[in-house]
Amino acid sequence: MTNINNIQNITQIINGQSTKVSQARGQAQGFESLLSSAQEEIEAAKEGTQTSELGEISAPAFDIQTVSSIVTNKTDKLLTGLESYSSQLNDTSFTLKDIEPVLKGLDEDATSLLEEALSLGEDDQELIDIATSTAITAKTEYLKFQRGDYL
Q1: Can you tell which superkingdom this protein's organism belongs to (predicted)?
Q2: Do residues 15 and 43 both lie within one domain?
Q3: Is residue 80 within 8 Å of residue 105, measured between CB atoms?
């Protein structure tokens, strides 16, 4: 007999679950109505305010330098440095200790210029000759200074 009583309990539990399922379906229908009303409000807001499309955004212009323009700029910088160096040698207010950092900078610039000049093609042979001559002049002055020719 106890088994029969269990069947009644099971039936009550199943009936309780079916009520819960029907309540959940009612909530789902309520959610659907809320969702559709929210979508309608969004569409109405879109229709009320017109937004303009974004146009094409142009990229900034890049200044692309070729190897020959880099060598030209470095040669010009080195020639300007050599001119400044020669004026400091003639000026008695500058000591050799004052001139030494300038000359070290010229030596580094000359090394950099030689490396760039080697990467030029055969079409730029005149530029290679000018850059090489300028770099050799700077390196020679550095060696003379280190050797003590100006003491």
Answers
A1: Bacteria
A2: yes
A3: no
* Residue scoring higher pLDDT (44 or 39): 39
Highest mean pLDDT among 48-52, 59-63, 73-77: 73-77
Asked if residue 143 and residue 71 are part of one domain, the reply reads: yes
Domain extent at residue 80: 67-147
Say whether both 80 and 127 belong to one domain: yes
Q: φ, ψ for residue 57 (rounded to 5)? A: -100, 120
* Residue 131, domain member (yes or no): yes
Would you say residue 10 lies in a domain? yes
Is the pLDDT score of 78 beyond 90? yes
Rounded mean pLDDT, 82-106: 88
Q: How many CB atoms lie within 10 A of CB 145?
A: 21
